[in-house]
Amino acid sequence: MKNEQLASKILELVGGAKNVDNVVHCYTRLRFNLKDDNQADQEKIEKLDGVITVQKQAGQFQVVIGNNVAKVYNELIKLDEFSTDNSGSKEPSGNKKKQNIASRLMETIAGIFTPVIPAIAGAGILKGLLGLITTLKWADPASGSIRILALIADCVFYFLPFFLAVSAARKFKTSEFMALALAGGLMYPTIMDAAKSIAAGNEVEPISFVGLPVGLVNYSSTVIPIILSVWILSYVYRLIDRFMPTVVKSIFTPTLALLIMIPIELIAIGPMGSYLGVSLANGVNWLFEHVGFLAGMLLGGTRPLLVMVGMHYGLMPIAISNLATLGYDYLIPIFFVTNMGQMVPRHSLYS
Asked: I want to staple 170 with a disulfide (CB 3.0 to 4.6 A). Which of 76, 87, 259, 298 is the partner?
């Protein structure tokens, strides 16, 4: 069955666009938020050529497609029944079905990280290859070629706040360019240079804004600060826009939003988010360092269940924080071993 035919048939069998609140995709599956799950014919969808299986998890109706999911999704969102919003997802009009807090949190994390994963995965593979080359002394680490390869491998992780700013803006339905401006505020040389100087043991003159201290934190590779900042921006921007006179909206709405948000993120959100991320990473690392066998068994054993309900995305910020702050991570090797252990059953390849 061709991709466009499969997309059309899936939409028909989930109850049509009128029954869909939202649809996104991850690496292997279409993730529908339906108004009424009972309107979806699960048995018929599972029999479609090109569909592996169907699961109902984390408040979502998930159609497992496999590696072809992106092409099917692209055909699905072209269908006339859908209207586009500025988040990049497809949402027919209507009230959304309520989800519990845990499901909404995991769905939000998945929606933010899924678009960025290809860049992270590509950079991660390059970092691994680069480490292999330098460890085996196949090339001089100081050579120009190796330095450029290191640049290619590190750039995604170093500037991760910019990548997450875009995907978070799409998820929270706010301006992508305003979100990028917030990432620029976090990564501005004045802040970054001061943070690096402090890390090197040098004394740095404190920076304040209207008498409030600005946190001098190295935000490269951080996850939580920019996500929290963009989330709050989505409310602040809409609030300002609502009361701003129409004739000056295009100029003063973004001006006031930046004037409010960047000081707030530098004084409160950024430092708090950074410390929260480091604390989470330290907590996980403590478990692995003191009860490593138990932590590994628990995480490895529950990994398939976490994937089934979409909660594995909640561990991604911790893994990335570990790589950024420590240079290594305990979680990703466990993920790898767990996935290797599932390779024998064919259907597990698509989990």
From this structure: 87
| Residue of 228 and 24 predicted with greater confidence | 228
Annotated catalytic residue, options 26, 182, 224, 324: 26
User: Whole-model pTM above 0.85?
Assistant: no
Q: Are strands 60-64 and 20-25 parallel, antiparallel or unpaired?
A: unpaired
Strands 29-34 vs 60-64: parallel, antiparallel or unpaired = antiparallel
- pLDDT tops 90 at residue 58: no
* Tokens describing residue 155: 């750039």
Q: What are phi and psi of 64, to 5 degrees?
A: -85, 115
CA distance 127 to 270: 27
Helix axes 224-243, 160-172, angle to 10 degrees: 40
Convert 314-345 to b/e letters by CB count within 10 Å (16 or more is b): bbbbbbbbbbbbeeebbbbebbeebbeebeee
Q: What confidence score (pLDDT) does residue 338 get?
A: 78
Say if CB 91 and CB 29 are below 8 A apart. Answer: no
Residues facing 180 on adjacent strands: none
Give the span between the Cα atoms of 253 and 259, in whole angstroms: 10
Determine the length of the chain: 351
Residue 155 bears catalytic tag: no
Q: CA nearest 222: which of 153, 287, 318?
A: 318
Confidence of residue 177 (pLDDT cuts 50, 70, 90): very high
